[in-house]
Amino acid sequence: MDFEWINKLISNLPETSVTRKNLIEIAGYPKWENVNSNLLAFYFDEKEEHGFNRLFLSSLLDLYEVKEGVEIQRELFETDFTVDREVPTNKGGRIDIVIRDESIENDESENSSWSIIVENKLFADLYNNLTEYWESIDSESKFGVVLSVNPIKIDRKLKKRNVKFINILHKELVEKVMQNLSDYYLESNDLHLLYLKEYIMNIKSYYRDNNKIKEMDTALKLFHENKQDIEIFKNKDMDLLKHISRIVFNIFEDMGFPPYSRKDSSKSKHFQIKDDYSKLSQTLQDNIDIAKKFRFWINLGRLRYDDTFKAIFELHGSKNTIYGDSLKNKLDEENLFTNNILKGGGGKSGSGYQHILNISLPLGDFSEVGFDIRLKEIVQNELFNNGLIDKTILELKNIIETE
Predict the structure, then answer these.
(1) pLDDT value at position 130?
(2) Which residues pair with 119 in a beta bridge?
(3) Single pTM value for the model
(4) Maximum Cα interatomic distance, the chain, rounded to a whole number of Å
(5) Sequence-separated (6 or more) residues with CB below 8 Å from residue 55
(6) pLDDT at 7 over 60
(7) Which of 6, 28, 320, 347 sees the fewest Cβ atoms within 10 Å?
(8) In the chain, how many H helices and how many E strands?
């Protein structure tokens, strides 16, 4: 069968990247608008303990200038200011965040000299009445921002009514913050620098997820285009697994460790001594009660792709695994571990299983003798004929008897 099409398919598949989880994601609030708004309000507030001063405000003003193609009179914004959440509108609505100078607090009869109205959107549509928001905030100078993950079109009719809202993406804001951070770095709090990194990572995860969706859409389209070849390949892959499984079943049955079941479509399986002891070595037959405390776990699936036989020889049952650490130490003292037979690491004392031998046997070239003959030869020579399994059984026997 010609598998050349696979190379073409793989070359067209989009690359995917794996990134670590951030603290907000771990806490379970990565896409909650309310949580995001609380964090934004915290970062916009220059009086908060983070020490970033006006980092977020300056970054927002920078973006406004770029988006609108204007130069803001920055001295207007040099006054002290407040940051308020859930500010009520004249008609009972709620504005996510309002940033404004403090004059309105000093004299409620006066308008603030400036304010910024922030409507925060993550993935929801813009259904809010921006005109109501605009008319509810009295300032001599003001503008509105719709912060969103994806671009949102602001109704052009608003500008005709002198309602000045622009759209800024969350990624644009955090990128600008990162650009400006060096000016505020020395005065900032070290712990909050770490928190800021987590916040920015969470924002970036929104776009990572969007990219992931696009990547998977591309992959799905390619799979649709190659569905017949992929189905043939999947069937061949399963046929190969079953072929390998039957070979391994026969080999270990001949060694006295038949498979727990003969289902040949499993990617891994346990092999352990049953009622027929005739194929076991004389040492194992003489110490059958000890031998039955062990079993093999064999990774059948990997044999389709790696030219290495991988298996685990383990103790099973909580009454038996209590001897696992002592047994591994004894085998280590006897220098029984090699490059291909390593000390097992899985499981633990008193649990349902504990790995004793971590087996990794390269097969080499089997094109002349055949896979089945080559595998049987290696398993026999590396595990049974050299007495490795027998020695492991006897070491456990000695440990138990000397308790």
Answers:
(1) 83
(2) 146
(3) 0.58
(4) 101
(5) 43, 177, 180, 181, 183, 184
(6) yes
(7) 28
(8) 16, 10
